[in-house]
Write a structure and sequence with these properties.
The protein has one domain. 44% of the residues lie in helices and 17% in strands. The protein contains three helices and three strands; from the N terminus they run ααββαβ. The longest helix has 47 residues. It is rod-shaped and about 110 Å long.
């Protein structure tokens, strides 16, 4: 038969210190906010950086292709400017924020028929919600760049 234990004190047992009842919801809110706010900020920042990365990649690729298929230097300049503006509008990047550089490795004339043209697109992404205190808005930027190489036609500039 099981043995019963009896207490000599009929009063309920008390715990030492303050009661923990009801603190779980407070702990959840505090810990949730401490974890949720940085994760939400990180998601926003990654989205903005990714958008700028796609914009610079598309700009470099499409401008290199436009230069390669253009009939001459004037047509290449005009189509490159139109394409860069259209891509900036499409991705919501500020106009003129993407810096384009065109180079032709190993060539004295750039671009030239039968050669390679390299287009480098570069921009800086400012991090959102940073105050202009101590120059944080100028310092906290993520550089994004993309490079595209395209072979020029042997008949480029003769049409």
């Amino acid at each position: 038969m099981p043995r019963q234990t009896t207490r000599s004190d009929p009063r309920p047992a008390r715990t030492l210190g303050p009661s923990d009842e009801g603190s779980a919801s407070l702990e959840f809110l505090v810990a949730g906010l401490i974890l949720l706010v940085p994760i939400a900020y990180l998601a926003v920042v990654l989205g903005i950086v990714h958008t700028h990365a796609l914009a610079t990649q598309a700009t470099a690729r499409h401008v290199a292709r436009a230069i390669a298929v253009a009939s001459g230097p004037d047509a290449a300049d005009g189509s490159a400017a139109r394409i860069a503006q259209a891509i900036a509008d499409e991705y919501g990047v500020e106009p003129g924020a993407i810096d384009l550089r065109v180079s032709c490795p190993g060539a004295d004339v750039c671009p030239r028929a039968g050669g390679l043209v390299t287009v480098t697109a570069r921009t800086e992404v400012p991090l959102p919600l940073l105050p202009p205190v101590l120059g944080l808005d100028r310092w906290a930027r993520v550089p994004v760049d993309a490079v595209a190489v395209q072979r020029m036609s042997r008949l480029w500039g003769t049409r």
